[in-house]
What does this fold into?
Amino acid sequence: MAMDRESKEISRRSFMKRTAIGGAGLVIATDILGPDLLAGIPNGANATMIGVPFEAIERVRLGIIGVGGRGTSLLGDLLAIEKVEVKAICDLVPEKVARAQKAVTNAGQAEPAGFGKDEWDFKNLTQLDLDIVYIATPWNWHVPMALSAMKNGKHAAVEVPACTTLQECWDLVDTSEATRKHCIILENCCYGSTEMMVLSMVRDGLFGEITHGEGAYLHDLRSILTSSEGEGLWRRLPHIKRNGNLYPTHGLGPVAHYMDIHRGDRFDYMVSVSSSEASLSTYVKANFTDGDPKRAEKYICGDMNTSIIKTQRGRTILLQHDVVNPRPYSRLNSISGTKGAFADYPPRVFVDGPKQEEWQSIDGFRDRYEHPLWKTTGELARKMGGHGGMDYIMNYRLMDCLKRGLAPDIDVYDAAAWSAPTPLSEKSVAQNGAPQKFPDFTRGKWNVHSDSPGFALQT
Ligand SMILES: NC(=O)c1ccc[n+]([C@@H]2O[C@H](COP(=O)([O-])OP(=O)(O)OC[C@H]3O[C@@H](n4cnc5c(N)ncnc54)[C@H](O)[C@@H]3O)[C@@H](O)[C@H]2O)c1
It folds into this structure.
């Protein structure tokens, strides 16, 4: 709705006043948002986005920024979901835009608009008539793109990690609250068949009172990091600039759900230490000849970063990051409580009782605890493939929430808190493991919504 100049000014002034109440981080959103975008913000400083439902829509109109490896895979899933229309594609590489447009027309939809004439052309995509914008670009672009989507009235769905500095965390939170648009982190690992089964076990009390969890990203990415295409073009750079946990959300997201983070608990502080760096530099020396510019690079990110997070309710989370040591893949994914424990890789359950010291395979628990989403949609998800089907379940669920007008499972506070270990671990490592406080991105609301149905349990 159009606003006259005076009401625009009043709206802007009242927003400025609210930012003054809310704290330092909020100034950013005020700078970014134009006065038109401040219309319709509910009274009360920084009204929360926890539990705010989407407005139900019959058909989801969607744009994707970034159709490299990840964006292409997300696009494939989205095209297989009913009543989802891919209306726009943006990428800097024209061939990738054309390939994605063809995938859309091959799926029987109209050709989506193409963007990518320069690095900022995504702004034009965010001005189209869309409901949600998917963002699957290198990390440094996530926040400008998500802010542009929300400022232009679209929900943003951002790849992992959503952001890489505390300032960026607050920018996402402030803008989501001010625009009343959701910013969802696309943390597919929360939707794995095992993770969702374990969540059902935790909620059923199988492990009693939860006191400790473990998550990690332990994945040998040496060849990807040093490739001359895809992630090799950008993902090695943080290893030159930062020492800490560069990719925290795959390990942390599922554990945050087991622990009801932002539904009754929150991350309080963390400590972090890094090992020395050896594997990436050794790999580069062994695989690239003297003239290659990579030989001159100096990596400062320790091979293994280990952090411990303490929650407000006194629980602990071990969080690790190692993408350069040769080793089998693991996200640790474990949880323990007063009555038992779960550990992954391979998935196994221990329930307190006479058979001490013996794990049981998770298979015996499948009938009782398989999540309804996997029961109904698992076969197709597995056929679609992406990470064992978790990608399809994530996309299906997000589109379903939009169509049915449910609140998203994962919101901007999760995006911020799960991404914050990157800057916090970096600071802690630089200070010999000194504790670093998590900002309370929920502004005190982490305990208010403990009766909410929460993650993927709304029907
Ligand atoms: N959730 C998962 O399992 C998972 C898996 C892989 C990657 N990711 C994440 O997905 C994101 C993308 O990773 P990827 O593997 O697809 O990388 P990629 O390099 O293959 O693709 C990134 C694409 O973004 C495009 N791009 C870069 N800057 C742009 C700009 N300003 N405007 C438009 N397009 C731009 C590039 O041209 C490229 O095609 C990263 O955040 C990564 O961490 C997540």
